[in-house]
Design goal:
Layout: H1 5-22, H2 25-40, H3 45-56, H4 65-133, E1 137-141, E2 147-150, H5 154-158, H6 176-190, E3 196-204, E4 210-221, E5 227-235, H7 237-259, E6 262-268, E7 274-276, H8 278-284, H9 295-300, H10 304-320, E8 324-331, E9 337-348, E10 354-363, H11 365-426, H12 432-463, H13 466-470, H14 473-488, E11 491-496, H15 506-527, E12 531-539, E13 542-549, H16 556-560, H17 565-576, E14 580-585, E15 591-598
Parallel strand pairs: 11-12
Antiparallel strand pairs: 1-2, 1-5, 3-4, 4-5, 6-7, 6-10, 8-9, 9-10, 12-13, 13-15, 14-15
Helix pairs in contact: 1-2, 1-3, 1-4, 3-4, 11-12, 11-17, 14-15, 15-17
């Protein structure tokens, strides 16, 4: 039998009213039983409690004042009966509230999870786009180097599709010279999770050429707990080529600066930083780590006497804001001094204010020394030219006098004798005495002619010994030494192990002979020697002439003296032949002149 809410409520009311009239506790028991029956009939606990409360709070009871007491008893009973249900209901309410709170929290978590999922999805899509479109190659390797994954960018960089390199051993693709390095790096990163390495190597392109990759790798563990090496590789081939070209240019610049003894510098006026090239450090004789870093450092390394001048020059150029050039002397840490040519330019900003100076410093010490030597050499050549002209003029005078005094007188006597002889022959007197006279005059004339011939031969030999042309250099040297010994009384020796005339032309032969003559003249004038040793030999395709005396030697200042025109003339003759000449002092016990000239080159015919 079904019971609705109104029936239960009416029965509760009737039983409660009966209790108030009869004060029978059975009526209260009936009310409790009715509640149990309602619950068993499918009423909910909330509905039953609601009926109880509505019945007890009803104002339809017509009770006397004495019945009020019994109503309180009934209410107390009902309260005790309903207490477990109300407590249970409170528990339900608290549980429902807790469930509602949990449900709200769960909704929030679900919303957050959906948001995170959306962000993860976006991040995954973004990462996928990066992996697919970035030029870097993403690779996952097994610890042994087997390729497990490759990003699509490998196609753009190396020409392979990812599938072509799947399960391939990465070391097989790497250039042989780099394999050991990469193998060691692979072992290093594989030792434990978290290890990271970086390496540069060359790897083979599908077309056969090699590309240079720069890779960083990390040992990571995947979701299944398996180790794997994640590698990010970038193609740096063009960068490496550009760097190599830059280094080659820098090396060329360094070599050019070294050859030209030219260093560069740059001064940032605003920051105060000063930068020198390596060659400029070499010019100043200091290592690069000790080079000045600021303008003040540069001034501090200068001598006091030069510092004020340098400050004044830099200040003036700063004001002029223009290119500049000046020379200044520096003193190296080892005490040597150099002369530098400084060139520079002032860099201005958009407002016209100087912000930087750049320039070069060139070691012109040798150049200045060369210029000085050239000037001295030029002066010496002028003096030598004047001396040669004077020698030629003196020779002309000597020859003129000799022709006049000796040859002229002899020819005049010969002329007189021939004139007298002519007169005798023209006369009618042909006696025997006259014939004898003619014969005697002819004999005198013959002697005059012989004397004239000898004089001409002497002059000819003094101008150029005929023996040099007729018998060669060796015989000419012997003849000259014999003449020198007989004239000076100085003992001479000559050693010869070559035939110079087979290798030397007329010009070279004459030069060697004249240098020998000049050496003997210097010995006679200055050496105070008692013996001269001359040696002629062939050595490594060159002719070597040594003239050694046992005199007082020659001093360094004498060799460098611009007035030593004899020595200068010898040097000039030697230089014209592409040879070399040296003067060696034997510690005051004599001098050795060593002449070395190359043999004349043989001409090669076109055939």
């Amino acid at each position: 039998m079904s019971i609705d809410k109104s029936d239960i409520k009416q029965m509760f009311f009737d039983r409660l009213n009966s209790f108030l009239v009869n004060q029978s506790e059975e009526n209260l028991s009936d009310i409790y039983s009715l509640g149990r029956q309602a619950l068993n009939s499918g009423f909910g606990l909330l509905e039953l409690l609601e009926i109880y409360h509505e019945t007890t709070e009803s104002r339809d009871f017509n009770i006397s004042e004495s019945q009020q007491k019994h109503l309180k008893i009934a209410l107390s009973f009902l309260t005790e009966c309903l207490a477990p249900y109300e407590m249970k209901q409170q528990g339900y309410e608290e549980m429902i509230k807790s469930l509602k709170d949990q449900n709200n929290q769960l909704k929030k978590e679900v919303e957050q999870r959906k948001q995170v999922e959306n962000e993860l999805k976006e991040s995954k899509n973004h990462f996928q786009q990066l992996v697919e479109n970035v030029l870097d190659i993403i690779t996952i390797l097994d610890p042994d180097g087997t390729i497990r994954f490759l990003s699509p960018s490998v196609k753009k960089v190396l020409g392979y599709s990812p599938e072509e390199l799947q399960e391939v051993q990465v070391l097989d693709l790497i250039r042989e010279k780099d394999r050991k390095q990469v193998r060691n790096k692979l072992q290093e990163v594989s030792e434990k999770p978290g290890n990271e390495i970086s390496v540069r190597f060359e790897i083979k392109h599908k077309k056969g050429q090699y590309r240079c990759l720069e890779s960083s790798a990390k040992n990571a563990v995947n979701a299944l707990g398996k180790p794997g090496i994640i590698v990010n590789s970038r193609d740096v081939s063009e960068r490496v080529k550009a760097f190599e070209k830059l280094e080659a240019s820098r090396e060329q610049l360094r070599k050019a600066q070294k050859i030209g003894m030219l260093g560069s510098w740059e001064w940032d006026i605003v920051k105060g930083d000063l930068n020198w090239s390596g060659e400029l450090c070499d010019i100043y004789g200091i290592p690069e780590e000790e080079k000045p870093r600021t303008y003040k450092d540069f001034l501090d390394m200068m001598p006091d006497k030069d510092r004020d001048r340098m400050i004044r020059i830099i200040r003036d150029e700063y004001i002029k804001k223009d290119s500049f050039e000046f020379e200044h002397r520096i003193e190296l840490p080892d005490g040597r001094k150099k002369l530098l040519l400084v060139r520079g330019d002032v860099i201005q900003n958009d407002e016209g204010k100087p912000v930087k100076m750049i320039g070069t410093g060139q070691d012109i010490t040798r150049m200045k020394e060369t210029e000085r030597k050239l000037r001295e050499y030029s002066d010496q050549l002028r003096q030598l030219s004047r001396k040669n002209e004077q020698v030629r003029e003196n020779e002309r005078i000597r020859i003129s006098r000799k022709l006049h005094d000796e040859l002229g007188q002899t020819l005049s006597l010969l002329k007189v004798d021939l004139f007298i002889l002519q007169q005798k022959l023209d006369s009618d007197d042909k006696t025997a005495i006259q014939k004898e006279y003619v014969v005697e005059e002819l004999k005198k004339s013959i002697k005059h002619v012989e004397t004239t011939i000898k004089t001409v031969q002497t002059i000819s030999r003094e101008l150029r010994p005929l023996i040099l042309d007729d018998f060669g250099l060796s015989e000419a040297i012997c003849w000259q030494l014999d003449k020198f010994e007989s004239h000076s009384g100085i003992t001479t020796t000559f050693q010869n192990n070559t035939d110079p005339d087979q290798h030397l032309g007329e010009e070279e032969t004459t030069a060697v002979f004249r240098i020998l003559q000049e050496s003997l003249t210097n010995i006679l004038r200055h050496a105070n020697a008692s013996k001269v040793d001359v040696e002629l030999q062939e050595k490594k395709g060159r002719l070597v002439l040594k003239v050694k005396d046992d005199g007082i030697g020659i001093r360094w200042d004498q060799l460098k003296n611009s007035k030593s025109l004899g020595i200068l003339g010898m040097r000039e003759r030697c230089a014209l032949l592409g040879g070399d000449i040296s003067f060696v002092d034997q510690d005051g016990k004599g001098t050795t002149v060593i002449l070395t000239i190359p043999f004349e080159k043989e001409e090669v015919s076109d055939g």
